[in-house]
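quick q for whoever's on today - can somebody do inverse folding on this one?? i tried earlier but teh output was garbage lol. tokens:
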């Protein structure tokens, strides 16, 4: 077995049963279920190979998600079939302009697949995640972790450099997408207790859910009924956490892709109250790709 270091790429294969609520009317994995299906395998590998289950308690650090890219193929699976989740994780550093270490990043990819009765592996989706090492502190500089904790036994730093995604990356449409029609959220909304997670933040998938609902309604008002497409990909950048009782507003722009897909680039802004206007940078940015639904005749035949 090779030596375990900060530059090791850690890999593992796991099996997760999809729950009834994870699947759409087609029997396909929903976009908002991908983090549930891949979350435990990712955490299990991270705790087993990198940080241990008591990383937060031992070090005073944690690694919240900073960037998340999730994708689904809309291909059906058997509702009781455990899906295969392949995970790989590596660590890296982001450098400041002066060449010093600005922060440490854990980056991970997952691939989710199933084995239908015909024996051919079917890709159901995948994720790409960037999580930033941090510690609780009101001072942004003191929150930054620039050296690996000694208890990890990996040395001080990985040699690998990782470029974190930026607001500009997500606010800019990809090449080939045109348009930019503005979509308006007419009123503010409030985050509820039911949308939180054990980090005492609003759960990552809630940003996707509220943007999905907004995008679906806006597209329907423009003649695109929800039955003709599915949300096949979401890219999310989390700038700051949101909490129970905070108000938010959504803004978005709609772009058309070269293959007929719609792209909605939405921003979620925290606002001081239900009647207050937008101020400052968004708390999160969400790119949502609406792709044409597979014809019913090909859903069970086409492989990913």
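ok took a stab at it. sequence:
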């Amino acid at each position: 077995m090779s030596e375990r270091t900060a530059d090791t790429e850690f890999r593992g294969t796991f099996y997760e049963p999809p729950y009834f609520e994870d699947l759409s009317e087609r029997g396909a994995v929903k976009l908002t279920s991908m983090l549930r299906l891949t979350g435990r395998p990712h955490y299990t590998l991270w705790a087993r190979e990198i940080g241990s289950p008591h990383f937060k308690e031992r070090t005073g650090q944690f690694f919240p998600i900073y960037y998340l890219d999730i994708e689904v193929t809309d291909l059906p699976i058997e509702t009781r079939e455990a899906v295969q989740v392949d995970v790989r994780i590596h660590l890296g550093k982001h450098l400041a302009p002066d060449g010093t270490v600005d922060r440490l990043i854990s980056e991970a990819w997952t691939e989710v697949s199933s084995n239908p009765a015909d024996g051919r592996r079917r890709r159901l989706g995948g994720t790409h995640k960037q999580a930033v090492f941090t510690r609780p502190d009101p001072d942004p500089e003191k929150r930054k972790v620039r050296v690996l904790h000694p208890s990890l036994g990996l040395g001080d730093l990985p040699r690998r450099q990782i470029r974190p995604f930026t607001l500009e990356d997500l606010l800019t449409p990809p090449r080939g997408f045109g348009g930019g029609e503005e979509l308006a959220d007419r009123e503010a909304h409030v985050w509820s207790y039911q949308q939180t997670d054990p980090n005492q933040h609003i759960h990552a998938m809630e940003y996707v859910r509220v943007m999905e609902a907004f995008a679906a309604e806006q597209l329907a008002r423009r003649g695109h009924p929800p039955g003709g497409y599915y949300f096949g990909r979401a890219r999310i950048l989390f700038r700051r956490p949101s909490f129970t009782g905070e108000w938010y507003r959504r803004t978005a722009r709609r772009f058309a892709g070269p293959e007929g897909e719609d792209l909605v680039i939405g921003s979620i802004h925290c606002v001081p109250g239900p009647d207050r206007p937008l101020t400052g940078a968004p708390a999160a940015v969400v790119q949502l790709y609406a792709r044409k639904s597979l014809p019913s005749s090909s859903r069970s035949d086409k492989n990913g």
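fwiw The chain has five helices and eleven strands. also Residues 1-164 form a domain with the Thiol Ester Dehydrase; Chain A fold (CATH 3.10.129.10). so keep that in mind when u check it
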